[in-house]
């Protein structure tokens, strides 16, 4: 690995009933960039998609019906999943997320630990928290 090469070592993976709608929400509502998308076995489903998050990192997305046979990952659509995103301008991003179909779970606010952020639920109920807190890992 070269000095300038970055390895993303953690990839939250979310499974959606409607993977295509999820990609639309994540790109238009939260500002992810679609990097790769591969079709699943069922028409319109997604076997695997990767979305990049600025300033770094990303998520993987698939449709529950991506395989010919159901599997353990498909059960994820029956429960809420949660991801935290670092963003320098959460105020502006909140309006964009709502316009794309998000429901506010936690209003925009300043936290005691120095972050400013909010939490929304996507159209399938997964929670997306967005804030300025970058964590202590460096």
From TrEMBL:
Residues 8-133 form the VOC domain. PROSITE patterns: VOC. InterPro entries: Glyas_Bleomycin-R_OHBP_Dase, Glyas_Fos-R_dOase_dom, VOC_core. It comes from the Bacteria. Signal peptide: none annotated. This is Putative glyoxalase superfamily protein PhnB. It comes from Kribbella amoyensis.
